[in-house]
Write a structure and sequence with these properties.
The complex is a heterodimer of chains A (about 120) and B (about 110). With about 120 residues, chain A is mainly beta. In chain A, the strands form two sheets. In chain A, strands 2, 4, 5, 6, 9, 10 and 11 form a seven-stranded mixed sheet that branches. Chain A has a four-stranded antiparallel sheet with strand order 1-3-8-7, with no helix packed on it. With about 110 residues, chain B is mainly β. In chain B, strands 2, 4, 5, 9, 10 and 11 form a six-stranded mixed sheet that branches. A five-stranded antiparallel sheet of chain B has the order 1-3-8-7-6, with no helix packed on it. The termini of chain B are far apart. Classes of the chains: A mainly beta (about 120), B mainly beta (about 110). Chains A and B meet through strand 5 and strand 10 of A and strand 4, strand 5, strand 9 and strand 10 of B.
Amino acid sequence: KAGVTQTPRYLIKTRGQQVTLSCSPISGHRSVSWYQQTPGQGLQFLFEYFSETQRNKGNFPGRFSGRQFSNSRSEMNVSTLELGDSALYLCASSFPGQLNTGELFFGEGSRLTVL
Amino acid sequence: GQQLNQSPQSMFIQEGEDVSMNCTSSSIFNTWLWYKQDPGEGPVLLIALYKAGELTSNGRLTAQFGITRKDSFLNISASIPSDVGIYFCAGSPGDRDDKIIFGKGTRLHILP
């Protein structure tokens, strides 16, 4: 069973540009969550999508957006990049049942560097 | 908002030593989880705890779900070099519409 796939793995952008990151969840998983990981802040929740709908959102500015497609694949976009957006962006998928158990399957992440 | 206080932030230990780390919260969680992140990888689930007071083992790892549902600990016995990495605790309120909260991680270093 293939794991969560994130592309690209590494990218370098300059301030003011925008970036789109992609995530393909494990087959059969319908929930996709995105996290930003930085050395000082740990894993910060960005948003969660389920059946093409945003179900939860973290405390990030509107420059951060996402979407989910009918095949459960998800993308996140960051516009007008700032130096502080340099981070590892992690995608996680899960098979949501009646309860949110917290059992997430993470991809290897997309490491974004903003110059 | 909800926060998890994870300690210690980092640990330097000798190979073979036991390790203990913990997580506390001001909020109640219905599930506590522990993840490990190896360098260059995404976090991987180690142990999930679903019931207050539950004590669960996975090989050399043991974790407990606190009775108050506001804390959890993870122990690693007889550490080996491959235990190096970052360990994250996470709490899930249990409601499908609630988000999962992560601690800031404990970075484990093993001295040769």
